Amino acid sequence: MPSTQQVKVDDRTLKLTNLEKVLYPAANFTKAHVLDYYSRVSQWILPHLKNRPVTLKRFPDGPDAPAFYEKEAPRYTPEWVATAPVPRRAGGKDIRYILINDRATLLWCANLASLELHTFLHRANALDTPGAIVFDLDPGEGSGIATCAQVALLLRERLEKLGLKAWPKVSGSKGIQLYVPLNRKATYADTQPFAHSLADALSREHPALIVSDMAKSLRRNKVLIDWSQNSDFKTTIGVYSLRAKERPYVSLPVTWEELSAHPEALYFEPAAALERLAKLGDLFAPVLELKQTLPALR
Q1: Is CATH 3.30.70.3300 correct for 132-289?
Q2: Residue 21 dihedral angles phi and psi, to the nearest 5°
Q3: Domain boundaries, the chain
Q4: Average pLDDT over residues 21-30
Q5: How far apart are CA 50 and CA 278, in angstroms?
Q6: Taking CA 144 as the corner, what is the angle to CA 142 and CA 150, rounded to the nearest 5 degrees?
Q7: Which fold has domain 5-119?
Q8: Which of 18, 20, 49, 197 makes a 20 to 30 Å CA pair with 93?
Q9: How crowded is the C-beta side of 26, counted as CA atoms within 13 Å?
Q10: What's phi and psi for 5, nearest 5 deg?
Q11: Tens digits of residue pLDDT in 77-93
Q12: Strand partners, 211
């Protein structure tokens, strides 16, 4: 395979470079494999990315080498790549975020070695309107994905009592994220206090298992329910994104039955993820579609 190729992607021409470069040495997974994965997963990932500002996490030499986050669209971004201005928290000139609205843009980003795609909960035309609530379950030292699964099931039980449905995905690392779709007019001023209150309540009920305080010193053998991701300036690893770990794991939706039965087995590399998608479809589709209303917490 040539190291550089010029290819036609839909109605765009892309120059793909360093195709033979191995980005995941443990899996002998090259940049060409990364591009192939994102091309093949595009039909499922694009609806979740559409019109959503995205932070790229770029790994030019793979996960074992220095990486950097890129919020601002680089100066060499093609004119056909859609972007959206987002105000900076501290004021000043807006950040021009990339919008990954088509397969060509997705592959252009992948060609930059953007292994990970981190997305906001809102769309570019509604910066204060999250489409969902996310609970990011982050295991401390001595905990892992199995402990996160325990917490996810407790959180699901509490949400169901409030009349809310949630969908889980594995992060592709040690954690799990739970998404509660809203798809109604709600602001972060509504969703963050709700998530914080729920996390606090569960940490009081299960102090040996759950923490809601951000201090890392409190997390040993416990799971942090990170409620703070429900913010207009924070992003979470996107569904179907690759992760920059030793192997090319995918952040992938799973069923509640799988979380209950064998969470330790819920690590998926690209081939397994694509096979699963072909069989099961987009398990995360309800996150984009289901309308739910936040209840009042007492």
Answers
A1: yes
A2: -65, 130
A3: 5-119, 132-289
A4: 97
A5: 21
A6: 110
A7: DNA primase, PRIM domain (3.90.920)
A8: 49
A9: 10
A10: -135, 145
A11: 999 999 999 998 877 89
A12: 224
Q: How many CB atoms lie within 10 A of CB 103?
A: 17
Residue carrying the six token digits 């709600």: 186
What is the chain's alpha carbon radius of gyration, rounded to the nearest angstrom?
Answer: 19
CA-CA distance, 116 to 32, in Å (whole number)?
16
Strands 210-211 and 223-226: what pairing? parallel
Neighbours of 108 (CB within 10 A): 22
Dig out the tokens for 280 from the structure: 């099961």
**What is the pLDDT, as a whole number, of residue 216?**
75
Nearest Cα to Cα of residue 288 among 39, 41, 50: 50
For residue 75, how many other CB atoms are within 10 A of its CB? 5
Return d(Cα 181, Cα 176) in angstroms, integer: 16
Largest CA distance in the chain: 62
* Distance, CA of 154 to CA of 280 (rounded, Å): 25
- Look up residue 127 and give its amino acid: L
pLDDT in tens, 214-253: 777 777 889 999 999 999 999 999 999 999 999 999 999 9
